[in-house]
User: Fold this.
Amino acid sequence: MSKKILLSESEMPTRWFNLMPHLPKPLDPPLHPGTHQVITPNDMAAIFPMNLIEQEMCADPWIDIPEEVLKVLTMWRPTPLVRADRLEAYLGTPAKIFYKNESVSPAGSHKPNTAVAQAYYNKVAGVKRLVTETGAGQWGSALSFATNLFGLGCRVFMVKCSFYQKPYRKSLMRLWGGEVFPSPTEMTNAGRAMLARDPDTPGSLGCAIAEAVEEAAHSSDANYSLGSVLNHVCLHQSVIGLEAKKQLESVGLKADVVIGCAGGGSNFAGIAFPFIPEKLGGRDIKIIGVEPAACPTMTKGPFRYDFGDTAKSTPLLKMHTLGHDFVPAGIHAGGLRYHGMAPLVSAGIAQGIIQPENRHQLECFEAATLFARTEGIVPAPETSHAIRVAIDEALQCKKTKQSKVIVFNFSGHGHFDMSAYDAYFDGKLQDYEFPMEEMKKALAAVPEI
Ligand SMILES: Cc1ncc(COP(=O)(O)O)c(C=O)c1O
Assistant:
């Protein structure tokens, strides 16, 4: 079998896969943050274009990908499905390990799959610029890349500690025409309130979201854009799993284990959701979402309605949550430091379809280092969580002498994360125990619904 399974551009999916109508029990609707009533499309129109709001609520099983979006996606798609045979040989496992390499996109991760679609739909709706937040910088750079191609402006509120830790992510956003500000800023009420509470705060994703939503809601020419969590983002990422399924089929294989790391849930949704109908049809597939042990939203957080930001300005979503005020420890997988989880992923867990797991950062860096030394590519710290579990599954196969097909999403490269690897090699990284009491405190501020 060849190392890489490739598809031609003509074999790219032309429709997105929507999990919503496949769920055995329907998804709980989003609620208005003020009234707690079911939200209407008009309630969301201050920050999103109507074409994306329709997609957010759409229950059609398939949605056509516009020609203009496909054209941009072919700049790097279809992405390769690669056999990690050198890693298999090192582990001495009979399992077949494959990774879907989303790091080949211009921004270096899966994030442009939805950034391009969101920029396109906003452009069609006549919007002039997009405002967003970014944690580690992957999403901000993906949106800057996409808005530039569609002639839109882009403003990014970047969590302050990452802004100073990862200066080259900031440079990348500026290269593609984005404006970047360290959050909290003095530009918004949400930012000023956070600075008044703590002038030296490192910032948080919840606060950066509040700043971006506030600016978009008060600007006539701008909309807000979110890089994960929402249904339409999971939808746009489904190209990953659709391609991977086709690639496996082309060599006569079917996945037994599908793995993705989960921050807001979108790259996991992208690789995993297209395999779910097969599982619901009775095939024994393990579908695993992996999160940091220091931010265990799916494995320790309750499944209930909560806000997406600290200012309580977003709709209430039914999801696994640690509480919108919960501030996770400063692990290097900044993209996995989010208190909530996509409602579709959360529903999949509640309905017994998705298996959540968590891992500590040191064991993930160990897995990432082994991957780089066998397969050559440098994983993002977020991606290392999926690699850890893929290795653990493969080692289990070694014990049971099973040659399972294990597929994981290689969500991004770590070329801008080398200081984290240095810290790991210098013995300066630590694991963090999850502060259960802090979560309980944060959950006390979540409305009872
Ligand atoms: C490389 C990489 N992988 C995974 C994630 C997690 O995001 P999500 O769960 O939305 O895919 C991020 C988020 O920034 C990321 O940068």
About this structure: The mean pLDDT is 96. The pocket of pyridoxal-5'-phosphate is lined by residues 109, 135-136, 138-139, 228, 261-268, 335-336, 380, 382-383, 411-412 (CB under 6 Å). The radius of gyration is 20 Å. The longest helix spans residues 383-400.
